[in-house]
Specification:
The complex is a heterodimer of chains A (502) and B (175).
Chain A: E1 6-9, H1 13-25, E2 29-35, H2 42-46, E3 49-54, H3 65-75, E4 79-81, H4 91-100, E5 103-104, H5 109-116, H6 118-127, H7 143-153, E6 157-161, E7 171-173, H8 179-194, E8 199-203, E9 209-217, E10 223-235, E11 238-244, H9 251-267, E12 272-280, E13 286-292, H10 299-306, H11 310-318, E14 334-341, E15 343-344, E16 350-351, E17 354-355, E18 358-360, E19 367-371, E20 378-379, E21 386-394, H12 397-410, E22 412-414, H13 420-427, H14 430-434, H15 441-444, H16 446-450, H17 455-479, H18 492-501
Parallel strand pairs in A: 1-2, 1-4, 2-3, 4-5
Antiparallel strand pairs in A: 6-7, 6-8, 9-10, 9-12, 10-11, 11-14, 12-13, 14-21, 15-16, 17-20, 18-22, 19-21
Chain B: E1 5-11, E2 20-28, E3 31-36, E4 39-48, E5 52-57, E6 60-69, E7 72-77, E8 80-88, H1 89-102, E9 107-110, E10 115-120, E11 127-128, E12 133-139, E13 142-147, E14 152-157, E15 164-165, E16 170-174
Antiparallel strand pairs in B: 1-2, 1-8, 2-3, 3-4, 4-5, 5-6, 6-7, 7-8, 9-16, 10-12, 10-15, 11-14, 12-13, 14-16
């Protein structure tokens, strides 16, 4: 495989910049693609070249395969990095890249297909001897078939979309009487979300942990795991805080899960960076959930504890390189990541797009901020509301908790509402600090996580507001010339202009 | 010595219905005496660009960030955001007069963000109750329900399914 010279990043926001940073370090030219809504986006400004790919809605821009490929050809890019989301898990796009002679930085289409549909993936994993959540490996033809299976598995069960993800087309069913209506709802939701109404059944696990294993494979059949990430802090099936090592894993469990994850990846001929997601029940049994055939949002925590730049490895493998390490790496220290969203946790996480008036990002020892925004930038309303990922490293989990709190203290975003205070309440919550939090933690503790005001701070804030209001009134009074004023105030900008004219 | 000015402040976090009186007395060179709840505090306030302030009070150094929306000031201080509605005496009196017209009158429901109208639940003439969903706006791949602020009758529906709306766009009027 030839050495790459120019990489087109078929994504936007923080992940596009994350990928371009490594490309730049390695001396690779970068091409951004942008929609009409992203002319001012940071990734468009950050790249060496930028190509307009269409109107704001992603299905008319970032998701149009022909347009993305045309942009690569036009700029002479020899590779495409898909980031996460958008086209990253679309095997048709991988095939189109192959046909066009452009290197797709990711797994082959066949591996994606084997893991793409949930029922196919489950069947493949059962064949490979990987434990899956008890349930069915095939979609049901009729509700009666589903009823028979459900009786065998035992309630409560989850009815899930075969083509799905992100919590859509998913229903928890506690008793048989609820099956008919849940069946109809899950099918229609799956159809509208994924264009595929196939549904299957999984046993509902009570208070599970979501633990995933990072795997990496090259084109020579080498495959290793790079430890786990604990991602149980979720709201509406969306991850909010991630950490590694998982506070609930023993070295023995890590080795066992790592081995299973590698087995899963090898079973489908995987290449590149991938993540095998597991559910861990209260007795610490683990079950395969799904495989994400791309780089994950939360990859920085793995980078912190392994010292590996995962994007550099992706590029290395895509150029036909052998994995730089062939043995698992023991995690060094502890890392925590929080996702900063433009949303208001107090109003049911309502998104708050708008203009960022001021921005001050944390820094200091062992702090990393992967951001996609800047002061003066208007966060558009058509894309995901995540504006940044903040991650830290420390020798121990206890120190990492103090550090992420400190870093969040420094984070100032003005003009839009963010979840920064909410994140602070998560990382200081006793249950989170103890480490044994399951996927129900955030919704269970929602009220507590919104926080309560401190009377001393409230008083200081009222005083500050009063002084601020007073200074504002005084400033206004100075700017507006009174009726008797001999010298009306003129701005320096104005006098500067007339000076230039003279 | 400069005169004292009274400000009328409601802590919106605490849901204050009645304003608290805050007395501000400038002492020169950035020093102020502020009286709140009958307690006088001397502070030094250094205003900084982009709505920031360094406030020294009671031996503490507070890094304060302000965000303003009309008369509402969001105060970020030691990781607490306190929303304060604060006006001077003149504005307070103007408001008291205006309030008699608005409290139980017409309520306009506006879009809290730019987005797309995906559902309109009501039509002109419908009787609605407080908290009843009126319109669903989609923004950033999320659907958000806007509810009626009061019990009354829908007199205008400007929201149309499938159309784009700006922040502050008028959607529904309830009387």
């Amino acid at each position: 495989m030839a050495r790459l010279k120019k990489v087109l990043v078929a994504n936007r926001g923080e992940i596009a910049i994350r990928v371009m940073r490594t490309c730049r370090e390695l001396g690779l030219k970068t091409v951004a693609v942008y929609s009409e809504a992203d002319r001012s986006a940071l990734h468009t400004r950050f790249a060496d070249e930028a190509v307009l790919v269409g109107p704001p809605p992603s299905r008319e821009s970032y998701l149009v395969m022909d347009t993305i490929l045309a942009a690569a050809k036009k700029t002479g890019a020899d590779a495409i990095h898909p980031g996460y989301g958008f086209l990253s898990e679309n095997p048709r796009f991988v095939r189109a890249c192959d046909k066009a002679g452009i290197t797709f930085i990711g797994p082959p289409a066949t591996a994606m297909e084997a893991m793409g549909e949930k029922t196919t993936a489950r069947a493949n994993m059962v064949k490979a001897g990987v434990p899956v959540v008890p349930g069915t490996t095939e979609a049901f033809a009729t509700v009666d078939d589903a009823r028979i299976s459900a009786q065998k598995i035992g309630y409560p069960i989850m009815l899930k979309a075969a083509g799905g993800g992100g919590g859509k087309g998913m229903r928890r069913i506690d008793k048989e009487a609820d099956l008919d209506s849940a069946w109809r709802a899950a099918k229609s939701e799956s159809m509208s979300a994924f264009g595929n109404d196939a549904v299957y059944i999984e046993k509902f696990l009570d208070q599970p942990h979501h633990v995933e294993i990072q795997v990496f494979a090259d084109t020579f059949g080498n495959c290793i795991h790079l430890n786990e990430r604990e991602c149980s802090a979720q709201r509406r099936n969306q991850k909010v805080v991630e950490e590694t090592p998982s506070p609930i894993l023993t070295p023995k469990m890590r080795a066992a899960m790592g081995e299973v994850a590698v087995k899963a990846a090898k079973a489908v001929g995987y290449v590149g960076a991938g993540t095998v997601e597991f559910l861990v029940d209260s007795s610490r049994n683990f079950y395969f959930l799904e495989m994400n055939t791309r780089l994950q949002v939360e990859h920085p925590v793995t980078e912190w504890v392994t010292g590996i730049d995962l994007v550099a490895w992706q590029l290395h493998v895509a150029q036909g390189g052998v994995l730089p390490l062939l043995e698992p790496v023991a995690p060094r220290g502890h890392s925590i990541e929080v996702r900063v969203y433009a949303e208001d946790p107090a109003t049911n996480f309502m998104p708050s797009p708008g203009t960022i008036e001021a921005l001050r990002v944390p820094s200091g020892p062992f702090v990393r901020d992967d951001s996609g925004v800047y002061a003066g930038y208007t966060v558009p309303n058509v894309y995901d509301p995540m504006i940044s990922k903040l991650s830290v490293w420390a020798p121990t989990r206890a120190e990492a908790l103090l550090r992420i709190k400190r870093a969040l203290d420094e984070y100032v975003v003005k003009g839009i509402t963010t979840n920064i205070r909410y994140l602070q309440h998560i990382v200081t919550h006793p249950e989170f600090m103890k480490g044994d939090y399951d996927t129900g933690f955030l919704s269970r503790e929602h009220q507590a996580l919104l926080g309560t005001d401190d009377p001393t701070k409230t008083r200081a804030s009222m005083i500050a507001a009063a002084v601020f209001a007073h200074q504002r009134t005084e400033a206004r009074a100075q700017l507006v010339p009174g009726p008797g004023s001999a010298h009306p105030v003129r701005s320096t900008w104005r006098s500067g202009k007339s000076w230039r004219k003279a | 010595m400069a005169k004292q000015t009274t400000y009328f402040a409601k802590n919106l976090n605490a849901g204050d219905k009645e304003p608290q009186h805050v007395l501000v007395e400038p002492l020169g060179a950035g020093h102020y005496a502020v009286t709140l709840d009958g307690k006088r505090t001397e502070v030094h306030a250094l205003s900084l660009p982009q709505g920031a302030m360094s406030l020294l009070a009671d031996g503490q150094s507070y890094n304060v960030e302000f965000e303003t929306r009309g008369d509402e000031v969001g105060v970020l201080l030691r990781n607490q955001v306190t929303r304060v509605d604060i006006v001077d005496e003149q504005k307070f009196r103007q408001r008291s007069v205006a309030a008699t017209f608005t409290i139980e009158g017409t309520q306009v429901v506006v879009s809290p963000m730019p987005g797309k109208v995906v559902r309109v639940y009501v039509k002109v003439g419908d009787e609605v109750t407080e908290g009843q969903p009126l319109v669903v706006i989609e923004a950033m791949k999320m659907e958000n329900e806007l509810k009626s602020p009061k019990t009354g009758k829908v007199t205008e529906v400007l929201a149309k399914e499938g159309t784009a709306v700006e922040n502050g766009s008028k959607l529904v009027v309830v009387e």
